[in-house]
């Protein structure tokens, strides 16, 4: 947004002021955020939307939120189960942590994964400098250096990471009535993940979508592209909105929502055409990126999304 103020409060993210008391925290790639978050001054209290991948990034987010709103954070929202949105939760242990019932259950299931990662990640981190040295191309070297930095951030706090569960749950909708503004949470089901919540500020026409919206690169379908398309279509039809904050990428507009819908259509159509040609599940999972989506960032998401959707 050309008119918004850009503030840098942390190496992990860049703050973007969207309205009085409403900020997006856009991830700085290569550090401890791994995704976007945000915070909202409700008047009598402050709400934070998502808590990043690492406690140290979450700590900076909390500090920025309290500094800029002048109030303690008393509500944290977890949009969905993925680690890059919830692993900073422990920093907000004294706040009410909100999510859907399903998301809470799924975060709990990831405890085993954290324990597993704790066992393996330090060794992996130690192996990376040699790989950077041995890189064959400049592109490969840059990718490995980025990985080294990101894995280093995870290593910094993995030993003290406590996957902290939401404390209050809802199923489809929750309205928080602040003295200054209202904040509405909606979950229309799951498309990116099994349960995807977004935050709507009706007066400001701002939506924090988390991973229901990507404004850069390939989408990551971890659940069901058809459902994702249904959810975004409903949001497009029913919500007045001007500013759309994605889970990954820079702050966007309604046009980005339309682009995501188109992406999902092309993705689903590619699979349908493959099925019509009689391709096996294995062959469907190897379908190449179609012309229309060529050149987008994060091409690895295409293959991982195919693995999920081809077996639907
Ligand atoms: Zn996600």
From TrEMBL:
The Metallo-beta-lactamase domain covers which part of the protein?
Answer: 34-248
Supply the source organism for this entry.
Tumebacillus flagellatus
Cross-referenced SMART domains: Lactamase_B
Looking at the Swiss-Prot or TrEMBL record, what is one Pfam family this protein matches? Lactamase_B
- UniProt name for this protein: Metallo-beta-lactamase domain-containing protein
């Amino acid at each position: 947004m050309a008119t918004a103020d850009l503030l840098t409060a942390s190496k992990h993210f860049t703050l973007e002021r969207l309205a009085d008391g409403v900020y997006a925290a856009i991830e700085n790639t290569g550090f401890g955020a791994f995704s976007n978050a945000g915070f909202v001054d409700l008047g009598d209290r402050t709400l934070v939307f998502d808590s990043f991948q690492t406690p140290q990034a979450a700590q900076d987010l909390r500090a920025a939120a309290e500094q800029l709103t002048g109030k303690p954070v008393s509500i944290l929202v977890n949009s969905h189960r993925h680690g890059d949105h919830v692993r900073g939760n422990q920093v907000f242990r004294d706040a009410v942590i909100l999510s859907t019932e399903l998301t809470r259950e799924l975060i709990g299931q990831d405890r085993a994964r954290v324990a597993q990662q704790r066992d393996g990640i330090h060794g992996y981190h130690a192996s990376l400098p040699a790989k950077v040295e041995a890189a064959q191309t400049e592109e490969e070297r840059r990718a490995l250096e980025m990985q080294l930095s990101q894995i280093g951030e995870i290593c910094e706090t993995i030993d003290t990471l406590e996957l902290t569960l939401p404390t209050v749950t809802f199923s489809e909708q929750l309205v928080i009535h602040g003295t200054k503004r209202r904040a509405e949470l909606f979950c229309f089901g799951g498309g990116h993940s099994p349960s995807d919540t977004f935050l709507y500020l009706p007066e400001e026409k701002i939506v924090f979508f988390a991973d229901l919206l990507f404004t850069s690169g390939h989408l990551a379908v971890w659940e069901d592209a058809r459902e994702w398309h249904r959810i975004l279509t409903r949001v497009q039809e029913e919500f007045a909105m001007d500013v759309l904050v994605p889970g990954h990428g820079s702050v966007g507009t309604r046009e980005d929502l339309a682009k995501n819908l188109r992406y999902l259509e092309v993705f689903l159509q590619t699979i349908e055409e493959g099925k019509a040609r009689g391709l096996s599940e294995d062959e469907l999972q190897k379908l190449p990126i179609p012309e229309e989506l060529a050149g987008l960032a994060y091409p690895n998401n295409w293959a991982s999304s195919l693995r999920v959707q081809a077996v639907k």
